Amino acid sequence: MRFGKFELFPKKYGWFPYIWPIYLALPIVNIRGEEGVKLFIGCAMIALFAVTYRQLYWATGQTFNLWLALQLGLILALCAFYSPYNFYLGFFTSNFIGWYTDHKKFNIAISCFAAVELLSLLIGSRDLLVTDLPFLVPFLLIMLVMPYGIRSMARRQHLEQELDRANEQIKELIKREERMRIARDLHDTLGHTLSLITLKSQLVEKLAGKDSERAQAEAREIQRTSRAALRQVRELVSDMRTITVAEALAEAGEILRAADIAFDVEGDPRLTGVSDLTQNIVSLCIKEAVTNIVKHSRATRCSVTVEIAPAEVRLQIEDNGIGLAARNAGDGDGNGDGPFTPPGDSVAGNGLKGMAERLSLIDGALTVGPGVPGRSDTPESGSRRGTRLRIAIPLIVKEANKEGETA
């Protein structure tokens, strides 16, 4: 409901604020027997109460306190001079008390509210029927308990908003990290390739009139180099897109089988309910781990286990290669798993360090250790135990938003 630039209630609350004013019909019914000035004052107080209801959705700080105090005063006046049954208007106030995030202010507000409601019933007790008490007391208790529930819900919504903001910051950090990685790749690989093409094209220009056969050979070399540059560009572009764990495992399977490494997956790689952010980071870790296996492990078999626990996602990548015995992985004695420690300055070590850095952005953990004998070993592997990477990422389960927002 908008009239020009005027907005009756904040849009973020949806239709919820428009439902409660229906109950303002109750005090109107309670004053229907009044006449003259008393009827006029009663209608004015009900109208003012409606104004306080609207303003409390917009007010903050001390202004919020003043409007809430005025609303309590109107409830007391309507109960004292008109009908004690107007104490039901306390449901309006009870809702707004739950908006207080400060513990001290919340306790003060709910104490004042309880005092006003009890005083309203005591003043109007002469007009109450004894048979009404069994119905009035439960409603009074509900009004006193309701602010605690609303406050808890508001606190949870506030935490969810903080979580959303934190996830946005993490996404920005990941984008920044990927930009830096792409810049390094462009400088280290593509930049070198283009420089080589430039030098060879200058050489072809010089040899064109002197040694045509050598010039043709250099031209063919330029073609091969340019194709390599094109492949590098395609790899960079493919790395930039978001992929799921299932897609990453499918690509990993193709790469490993092409390298004559047997590959199997246990568990459900779809990771239903896991955020795109988490899946993208895990996918990048899988790609890095598979690259290390193909380049450095000399393995004949690789297995991946995917598991969703109640509080975390677990992923294990294990091979039966030569292992990381020469590197400072695991717990230092080579007999068990331990928190990740960068194994020197090797290419594999840099890859593992990058995985650990990515996982740290979402509070994930990486452990590196030797493989388990009898699990991934084969007769061809002899006494090799291979390498086992374990990734654990905490899951944060958010409940669906309910009506109302944090004030």
Automatic annotation (TrEMBL):
Record-annotated Histidine kinase/HSP90-like ATPase domain positions: 283-395
Segments forming domain Signal transduction histidine kinase subgroup 3 dimerisation and phosphoacceptor: 178-242
Reaction catalysed by this enzyme: ATP + protein L-histidine = ADP + protein N-phospho-L-histidine
Domain called DesK/YvfT N-terminal: residue spans: 7-149
Stretches the record annotates as Disordered: 366-388
EC annotation from Swiss-Prot or TrEMBL: 2.7.13.3
Coiled-coil segments on the chain, per record: 156-183
Highest taxon in the source lineage: Bacteria
Principal EC category: transferase
Molecular function per GO: kinase activity
Entry keyword set: Coiled coil, Kinase, Membrane, Transferase, Transmembrane, Transmembrane helix, Two-component regulatory system
Cited Pfam families: DesK_N, HATPase_c, HisKA_3
Transmembrane segments: 15-32, 39-58, 64-85, 106-123, 129-150
Protein name: histidine kinase
